[in-house]
Design a protein that fits this description.
The protein contains 13 helices and three strands. The protein has 253 residues and is an all-alpha fold. The chain has three domains: 52 residues, Multidrug-efflux Transporter Regulator, Chain: A, Domain 2; 62 residues; 109 residues, Globin-like. A three-stranded antiparallel β-sheet has the order 1-3-2. The longest helix is centred in the middle third of the chain and has 33 residues. It is globular, with a radius of gyration of 23 Å. It starts with a strand and ends with a helix. 16% of the residues are buried.
């Protein structure tokens, strides 16, 4: 089967404009252009579009998808198996959230009691899954499978009070960091306060704290562009500033 832009768009449930954009950025080019100037897509392109949409469904940025799929080492069969595993994980997360909602309804109607810990299980599982999807490979390589698994288990067992406290603490870290960044001094009192708050935030997730691990994580904020983007989205250079402040705080330069 061969498809024009319009027919492939209808088949895949995307817009013709999307397919033209994919061609423009080089992630999905047509098999050929016919004598009338129409883009024509064959089976290979259909399969490639399916891969792209799989990645998009998992929330992966288009630029990252392009890097993955245009890499010489890209293996379509392996990618499909990875998609399957990720979608199964996503289904587990949705099933847990559905169960959580059903329990909450039953609790509201007085048909069952629901513990405070149960109320937050779905949200905590979502947080773990999102972190695994975004940073899991790098974190596991850096700190080891056991350490990451223990950290995830600690999060899942977190009480309602702890969950609320760590959420509030995260906001305090960002506020303190913004104030410290304005001073331009990573060794200053405000920057060191931000580093101390960051340490306290980490201890909610880590089963064991060390200055070396804290400093290593701070360095990753600069070395990994995804972490850098998270901290730099409000002020460019904030990730590096936090790294410097934590390195001074821990004495691990």
């Amino acid at each position: 089967m061969e498809y024009t832009v319009q027919k492939l768009a209808q088949l895949a449930g995307v817009s013709s404009r999307t397919l033209r954009y994919y061609d423009q950025i080089g992630i999905l080019t047509p098999a050929r252009v016919n004598s009338s100037g129409y883009r024509i897509y064959g089976q290979k392109e259909v399969d490639r579009l399916q891969q792209i949409l799989f990645y998009r469904e998992l929330g992966i940025a288009l630029e990252t998808i392009k890097e993955i799929m245009t890499a010489p080492s890209f293996d379509a069969e392996k990618a499909l198996k990875e998609h399957r595993e990720q979608l199964l994980e996503k289904r587990k997360q949705l099933d847990l959230l559905i169960t959580n909602v059903e329990k909450t309804i039953a609790s509201t109607e007085g048909r069952m009691d629901m513990s405070d810990q149960e109320k937050f299980e779905g949200f905590k599982k979502k947080m773990i899954d999102e972190n695994q999807r975004k940073y899991g490979k790098e974190i596991r390589e850096k700190y080891g499978q056991e350490t990451v698994n223990q950290s995830n288990a600690k999060l899942m067992n977190m009480s309602q009070e702890d969950y609320e406290a760590v959420t509030k603490l995260e906001a305090e870290v960002r506020e303190a960091l913004a104030e410290a960044f304005a001073t331009g001094d990573p060794a200053g009192e405000q920057a060191q306060k931000a580093a101390e708050l960051h340490k306290r935030w980490l201890t909610y997730y880590w089963t064991e704290y060390s200055k070396e691990a804290h400093a290593g994580l701070a360095q990753m904020y600069v070395d990994d562009e995804r972490f850098t983007a998270y901290y730099d989205k409000e002020q460019p250079g904030m990730a590096a500033f936090l790294r410097d402040a934590i390195h001074i705080y821990t004495g691990q330069k």
